[in-house]
Amino acid sequence: MVQLDDVEVISSQSYPATSTTPAHHSVIVGCSPRKVKTTGSALLGQFQKAGIDPKMRIAEFHVTEDAVVQPGKPRLDQARMFLGVGRRRSGGLTLGFRCA
To answer: Which of 10, 16, 52, 97 has its CA 20 to 30 A from that of 59?
Structure first.
């Protein structure tokens, strides 16, 4: 089990289906507070656009259409979300995300 603090949605994106690819949706989340002075201006703009404080870690997860959460809305610990952790051959961790 992994415990993450202060998890919030930074952005959500939906891509329509084309003739070669199916429609897909993604949610970008951030966790762990970060100081404003150590955050780059491009990232700082994304956080300000979402109306949240800067985050240390950022990850994008592909989700189903009904699992898309709008930026700045309820924190993920209040929604019914699950985070799966796996091991990579290189020794790193992989994170998987799905909505219940």
So the answer is: 16
Q: Please, which residues bridge with residue 61 across strands?
A: 27
For the cut 90, the answer to whether the pLDDT of residue 37 exceeds it is yes
DSSP bridge partners of 45: none
3-state secondary structure of 73: coil
CA distance 39 to 55: 9
Q: Which DSSP string corresponds to 9-65?
A: EEEEEEE---SSS--EEEEEEEEEE--GGGS-HHHHHHHHHHT---EEEEEEEEE-G
* pTM for the model: 0.67
- Domains, the chain, ordered by start: 8-99 (3.30.160.810)
CA distance 17 to 26: 14
